[in-house]
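Incident log, support desk, overnight shift.

02:14 A customer reports that sequence design results differ from what the structure should imply. Their input is reproduced verbatim below. On-call engineer (initials T.W.) acknowledged and began investigating.
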């Protein structure tokens, strides 16, 4: 593009260096606008994939399930996505009790097996039996049934 501008400028009797300087100056003037547009586009694309977090009442959670959600947020969410089909470090837990078997382990998807995993851990997951009370685990299971 610069070569064409230099050649065209030479035909019109303009200095080649002046033509290149003008071209560079024009390009630098649109650079901030291009950066701003690109940034806005990236923000819009990211925003399209992010959903607003629904409240407990919007999800129709009872008191026990809402308490379980708080526990999930504090201990589980860092590794397990609650409403997505992809996990973070661990497998996703959406619809975990609607399936016959747990992902990865193949163990039965029931309260007994999940309680055991929560209490004692499994593979890379630490156990929370020394951290969570039996009531907190029950609350967590109640919430997980809503996923």
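02:41 Re-run completed on a clean worker. Output:
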């Amino acid at each position: 593009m610069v070569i064409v501008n230099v050649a065209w400028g030479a035909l019109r009797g303009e200095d080649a260096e002046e033509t290149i300087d003008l071209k560079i100056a024009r390009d630098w003037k649109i650079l901030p606008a291009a950066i701003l547009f690109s940034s806005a586009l990236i923000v819009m694309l990211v925003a399209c994939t992010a959903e607003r977090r629904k409240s407990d009442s919007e999800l129709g959670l009872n008191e026990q399930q809402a308490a379980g959600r708080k526990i999930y947020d504090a201990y589980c969410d860092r590794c397990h996505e609650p409403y997505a089909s992809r996990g973070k470090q661990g497998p996703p837990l959406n619809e975990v009790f609607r399936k016959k078997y747990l992902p990865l382990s193949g163990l039965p998807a029931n309260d007994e097996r999940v309680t055991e995993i929560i209490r004692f851990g499994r593979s890379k997951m630490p156990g929370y039996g020394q951290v969570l009370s039996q009531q907190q685990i029950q609350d967590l299971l109640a919430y997980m049934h809503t996923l």
